[in-house]
Amino acid sequence: MKTFVLAGAVMATFGTAALAADLPARKGAPAAPAVSATCLETNTLPTDVFGFTVGSDVTDVGAWGLGVTANGNFSGRGQRLTGLTGVAQLATGVFRCFEAAPYVFANTTTARDRAGFSGNGSFWGGGLELKYKFLGRDVHGVGATLDLDVSANGNRLSGILGAGNDSAVNVAGRLFLDKELVAGRLFGAVNLEHISSFSGKTGILVDTSQFNVRAALSAKVLPNVYVGAEAWYSRSYSGAGYDRYLGDGFFVGPNMLWAINDKWTFNAAYQVQVAGKVKAGPGNINLTNYNQHYARVKLGYAF
């Protein structure tokens, strides 16, 4: 159960949080590809166009974006678990092709098993995300961005989720790739992600790590509306450095983006676990290291 709780905290913090790549940012006037910097695209992608998957675009120097996100994760097989996480993040371009984005988050989780025993938990904290875009779609055909995300959180657990207080430091390294597949109409993205979580070693939580692959397609169906679908495959391990394999999960779901105007955007995304396995365990989905359902709604503002 402790592994499940920590995995839920990590996934809520990194898997469903509003990260800097998703924040709205007002772009400057596009330059011609021959003279533009790597990170300046003539056809920038809208905020959150890929849902949970992240595109390669970064905030321009002097531009600012604010994102407020509500994330939910739910399980209903064997035990009922509900987790709700709120995230607020501010992003700006520090210098050309480099973005910095601090954020804060808070979560509350409740659980009840088949025997009627219950528990609750919470975690809260903050972090900083740094992104550098080193390939642009205009020049290279594919956009590519490196991402480093470091956060710290406190945890409180009771009942079947554990008992007591703990803390953790989380480090994530990511590669964001995207490409325009059909001019102005269809876009694709792939993310590669490593996450290490280091616990406070008080006996409640343990060190864990994950490797994630995300892929998404998004189609422009109206001038200000995009709809898409994405898939996510994840592997979980004990220890911060892939010490022992614990299990995996495969998720799919839809997403949509509504660009309300040049400042406001609204995004909604949902994923359900369709396959998964706990090491040496029964069943065809993994509810030990992951939840069954993940959902997100987000409001973004550029200024």
Summary tags:
303 residues; 12-stranded antiparallel beta barrel; Lipocalin; disordered N terminus; globular; mainly beta; single chain
Describe the structure.
There is one protein chain. This protein has helices at 2-15, 137-140, and strands spanning 64-75, 79-95, 98-113, 118-135, 143-159, 164-182, 186-199, 208-222, 225-238, 244-259, 264-278, 293-302. The chain is mainly beta and 303 residues long. It has one domain: Beta Barrel (Lipocalin), CATH 2.40.128. A twelve-stranded antiparallel barrel has the order 1-2-3-4-5-6-7-8-9-10-11-12. The longest helix is centred in the first third of the chain and has 14 residues, at 2-15. The chain is globular.
The helix/strand order is HEEEEHEEEEEEEE
CATH superfamily: Autotransporter beta-domain
Q: Quote the CATH topology.
A: Lipocalin
- Structural class by SSE content: mainly beta
The CATH class label is Mainly Beta
Assign a percent range to the helix content.
Answer: under 10%
Low-confidence stretches: 1-21, 25-36
End-to-end separation: 43 Å
Tell me about the largest β-sheet: 12 strands, antiparallel, barrel
Q: Architecture, CATH level 2?
A: Beta Barrel
The spatial strand order of the largest sheet comes to 1-2-3-4-5-6-7-8-9-10-11-12
